[in-house]
Each structure stands twice: as structure tokens, then as C-alpha cells.
Amino acid sequence: MLTETGHLVFVNQTGGWLTGPALEKALVGADGVIAGTEAFTAEVLAAAPRLKVISRVGVGTDSIDLQAAAARGIRVCTTIRAPVQAVAEHTMSLLLAVAKGIVSYDRNMHMGDFSVSPGMLLAGKRAGIIGAGRIGRRVGELLEAFGCTVLYYDPADPSCLSPAWIRCKKLPDLLQEAEILTIHASPPSDGKPILMKKEFQTCKTGVILINTARGGLVSEDDLILALQEGRVGAAGLDVFSLEPYRGPLLGFPQVIMTPHVASNTIESRTEMEMEAVQNLISAFRGMEP
After folding, report:
1. For residue 174, what pLDDT is reported?
2. Looking at the predicted structure, is the pLDDT value of residue 5 above 70?
3. According to the model, what pLDDT value does residue 156 have?
């Protein structure tokens, strides 16, 4: 937290996230803040009368009450460019780990078990991207390089996509065709998951699901049912509604999980932090981040 003149008024050295009163206290006297995933609720923002800019290290804004921020004239910035390559690579890593059985092979070999089972080629598969923003587009490029047919669904109908990609105007159209699903969407305004029981029932049997976007985009209960029924054959998950995750998905060997680390590379984190600082400076100067 710092003033508009660059004077630091607080540096979080607790090793964890600040919440409620602790966050309110830290914001006293601050004109701007470089934020992580702290919850900037309406109550927190009301306790920071000088606050003009929240510059988040990351792409999501679901931890910030945007309506309350707008009402107070607080500008919210995110680091939309820095994590793209890291998240795209992590998405592909999860997909390859699932398709090739990497995790189970490793576990088994460490226990002296050298049994094998068939893997799966990505080449020739129909891969569906839900959300074709910067990360979704980069994932699409990587999938295309592996020989996948790329389908995408995005209500915004983004431009600059490969002419070889197939646009699905409705989500069910994508779900009916895709053998691989990967999510790169923002949370809907109503806060509901975009994949629930109805959507899973629409999917091809045995579909592979990858989620490196937001845990709340997928109903956990409905995903568990889809896994039990075989509707979802396997999943690679980096995000969960409650983190750190300790739920029942841990009991499914066909689900590969990582602890929300898709953007956590040295290069990406450095770039994100630099971008967050530059966004803050630009906002104070009245420029577009």
C-alpha cells in the first residue's frame, strides 16, 4: 500500500493474505495498493477513503467488489498479459499428464510396478475451448500444434482467431462435439457455474476436462457425479471453489490436481509484479494501464 507520491505506508510481511480488519488497517492512508487475492469487500473499501487504485497481480477481479469500487471512483487494474504463456503451458501440461497417464506411471514405478495401459493421442482430437480471450487463444494455438481440431465458444466472438478454428455459437454445440474441454472464461455475472449436471449430460462420454480458470466455473458435485458415471473420463484441475482443496475429488485417481499454480513460474511472476507496478503508475498519471 502506498501514497500517490510513492511513499509506502504498509508492506504485507505476514506470509499470508490479509482479511477484514487487518486489511482495513493496512489501507489507512493508502492512495493505491498492489493486491493479490485479498477480498476487497464494500466494507473494506469504505474503510479506505483515500484509495484511488487497486492494481492486482493476476487477471481475476472476483475478489473485488467492483460495484463498490466504481461507486467510490476506485480504478481496478489487472495484469492481463503476463500470465498468458504460463497458464497456457500449465493447461497443456495437465492435458498431457491426463492423456498419457504420466502421474500414475510415476507413482507405480516408484513402488516397483511397471504395468502399462493405453494412452491417448492428442492429434486428431476435437478440443473445445470455453472462453477465447488471451489465454484461450494461446491454448488453442498449442492444441493446433499438437494436431487437434480446435472448437471454441465465447459470447464476445473474439477476432484474430485462426480461420481453421470452429466457432460454436452456443455452449451445448461445443459440448456435444468436443473430446477435450478446457476452460478459460471469466465468472458469469450471476456467479453460477457454467458446467453443471445438464452440461455434463450434454458432453461426449469420456470427455477430458481441464480447468485452469476459476474453480467456481464447475459444479464440484456435478463433476463428481459425471466422473462416477464415466461421462467425464478424466480431469486436470488447478483451481477449486475452496482452496487449499481437501475435498472428495482427491479420491479420484483419474483427476490430476495442482494447487492453483498455473501462473507460478519465475518468469511469469516477475512479469506480473512488474506489470502491476506499471499499471499503478499509469493509473496515477491518468493513463490507460
Report:
1. 98
2. no
3. 84
End-to-end CA distance of the chain: 18
Active site residue 184: no
Catalytic residue among 81, 107, 243, 267: 243
The residues pairing with 55 across neighbouring beta strands, listed in sequence order, are 34, 77
For the record, the C-alpha cell of 7 comes out as 511513499
Task: Please tell me the distance from the alpha carbon of residue 281 to that of residue 87, in angstroms, as a whole number.
Answer: 26
**135-180: per-residue pLDDT in tens?**
999 999 999 999 999 999 998 876 667 889 999 999 999 999 999 9
- Whether the CA torsion 188, 223, 203, 233 is positive or negative: it is positive
Tell me if 149 sits within 8 A of 143, measured CB to CB.
no
Enter the DSSP assignment of 42. Answer: H
Q: How high is the pLDDT of residue 188?
A: 83
Q: Are 268 and 83 in contact (CB under 8 A)?
A: yes
Active site residue 243: yes
Radius of gyration of the chain (CA): 21
Distance CA 150, CA 129 (A): 7
Q: Which of 214, 220, 231, 275 is catalytic?
A: 214
Catalytic residue check, 107: no
Q: For 173-230, how does the pLDDT look when each residue is reduced to its tens digit (9 = 90+)?
A: 999 999 999 999 988 878 899 999 999 999 999 999 999 999 999 999 999 999 999 9
Query: Is the separation of the CB atoms in 259 and 240 below 8 Å?
Result: no
Domains and their CATH numbers in the chain: 20-82+266-284 (3.40.50.720), 84-257 (3.40.50.720)
Catalytic annotation, pick one of 90, 134, 260, 271 = 260
Distance of alpha carbon 74 from alpha carbon 67, whole angstroms: 10
Phi, psi of 208 (to 5 degrees): -95, 130
CA distances (Å), origin 273, targets 34, 35, 83, 159, 267: 9, 10, 11, 28, 10
